[in-house]
Specification:
CATH class of the largest domain: Alpha Beta
Number of strands: 19
Largest sheet: 6 strands, mixed
Helix content: 25-40%
CATH architecture of the largest domain: 4-Layer Sandwich
Bound molecules: manganese (II) ion
Strand content: 15-25%
CATH superfamily of the largest domain: Metallo-dependent phosphatases
Order of helices and strands: EHEHEHEEEHHEEEEEHEEEEEEEHEHHH
Shape: globular
Amino acid sequence: MSKIGIIGDLHFRETLPYSEYVEDGRVAEEKEVLDFIVKTLEDCDEIVILGDVFDKKNNPSKVITKVVSFIKRFDGKKVYIISGNHESTADGKSALDFLRKINNPNWNIVTNKIEVIGDMTFLPYMTKPELEVDDDTAGTKKIMKELKKNKMLFLHHAISDSMARSISTNIFNEVVLPKTGLEKKFDLVVGGHIHTPQVLTGGKTIIAGSVFNVEANEKKKIILKIDKKTLKATDYDLPGISIHRLENPSASDFKKIDKNDIVRVVINDPKMKGNLAPVKKELERIEMNTILEQYPKTRKKTHAKGDLLNLSVKDLLKIYAKERKVDEKKLFSALELI
Ligand SMILES: [Mn+2]
């Protein structure tokens, strides 16, 4: 029974975010996750890496080495890697290009055009200049026209009717491909790019999500195996440290937190000022924690230049929303996303 192993956005970088909170800089955790992936996908004969392998377009040698040695661990398997937005430039170049020079006959690097290999179609992230279009709608149309019917599609683009945390991809300012249109052309669609793993309604489109916890309050990280015959997908929970951001927490908010998690407490409720003993008591059992007290200024003069410097990002967004007449809630959720 032949299986395809699916790995979502890896975003390899020198050190994982929040590494300053952990004694070893999250090095052991990174190794644990990668070892888990290699071991879990041992029985797959094909591996698809869905893009944003690199977090950046230009990378120090340490990061390049990390990427190459990770891919080399799938020795003997066919490996397909598509390029993501984090690693590709507007002119169609990608941080992954150098992998072709390694000249491994088992590696297929797809960076700047749609490629069809047997019953698998690969769509890397394509910029508007690459697509020779001026706006996102034209980009969507062009890609949909170029995609020909096949069994499976692997892509690094947003798909409509999915969620990036609490935001619908339908309001994204980028090329978004229509879920129903894709499902007419393919029996199975597997996407990267969006970091929240999810199976869309009907079960034909799966978003793998990202591999490492890099933001506060991210929940579930997975990899997938697909049975090539039945197209049935099975997901496997990845290990990794959870990062929590707690605002003005009470004792009960700490119940779900593991002692090995990273916890960042933000206190901005003036009522809690001087009453932090219960919070500090809860934090005692959590090794990796910080507590930030950030009380709002009582007096806000929005139009005086000097005062703006003292405003919180949220306050500044409120002013921006008011001036530009946009929904402040949308801005806040966008901020959360960043
Ligand atoms: Mn991406």
